[in-house]
Specification:
The chain is an alpha/beta fold. It has one domain. 33% of the residues lie in helices and 16% in strands. It is built from 7 helices and 9 strands. The chain has a 5-stranded parallel β-sheet with strand order 7-2-1-8-9, sandwiched between helices. A two-stranded antiparallel sheet has the order 3-4. Strands 5-6 form a two-stranded antiparallel ribbon. Helix 2 packs antiparallel against helix 3 and helix 3 packs antiparallel against helix 4. The chain is globular, with a radius of gyration of 18 Å. This is WbqC family protein. It comes from Methanolobus mangrovi. InterPro entries: WbqC (IPR014985).
Length: 226
């Protein structure tokens, strides 16, 4: 059984969902430490001028992602952050082919208030995985209560869900202790993700936007996944 693990990012790019689709069970690493420079609370949408960051205002502390609170008191311009993000999505994707199919659910998500970043991110991840018709079971690492770190924690999580293969992102080659997988009898495989190209709303193709870009423009994860 193939196990994938990834931090619960905000509006993840489609490589995240490629890994999710290729896993038999997927673990959201929600008790990893929050990093303000990562994609935990931000991602990019496509605009006529290139790309734009959508950033959720959060308290920036050295604590786990699932303990990070959203700063709902902070405004973007004159609007609450969620109304601002929804407005940016509406303004930049209203003419996309699949906008009308998905905008109502997105409006429902963004019109709610969330105290914790992880609750927002998990709601969006579930919406996107459902929209991409991905059936992989998703669980959270915090459910298991492991105090181990790095490669040891990954192995603990894979073992806890009964996996015998671990699907790592390609960057895992730079930090995973590969010999530990051999000792534990867990096969280590690396994601070979090639970003699909699809028609965007504006001239030229820009990869690595939020997966909303693929969903609203292509309906799924690009032609490769239809």
């Amino acid at each position: 059984m193939i196990v994938g693990i990834h931090q619960p990012n905000y509006l993840p790019y489609i490589g995240f969902f490629d890994k999710l689709k290729k896993s038999d069970i997927f673990i959201l690493y929600d008790d990893a430490q929050f990093s303000k420079g990562d994609f935990h609370h931000r991602n990019k949408i496509r605009t006529p001028n290139g790309s734009k960051w959508l950033t959720v205002p959060v308290e920036k502390k050295l604590i786990s992602i699932n303990k990070i609170r959203i700063r709902n008191d902070l405004l973007i311009g004159n609007n609450k952050w969620n109304i601002s993000h929804l407005g940016d999505i509406q303004n930049n994707y209203s003419k996309a082919p699949f906008y009308q199919k998905f905008i109502t659910e997105l409006e429902n998500i963004y019109n709610e208030d969330y105290d914790f970043l992880v609750d927002l991110n998990m709601r969006l991840i579930q919406f996107l995985s459902d929209s991409f018709n991905i059936k992989t079971k998703i669980v959270c690492s915090s459910e298991f209560g492991f105090n181990s770190k790095s490669t040891s924690k990954i192995l603990d999580l894979v073992d806890a869900v009964g996996g015998n293969k671990y699907l790592s992102g390609s960057c895992g080659k730079n930090y995973l202790e590969i010999e530990q997988f051999d000792r534990c009898g867990i096969e280590l495989i690396f994601q070979d993700f090639k970003h699909p190209i699809y028609d965007q709303q504006y001239n030229g193709f820009m990869p690595n936007m939020t997966s909303l870009d693929a969903l609203l423009n292509a309906g799924f994860m690009g032609d490769k996944y239809k």
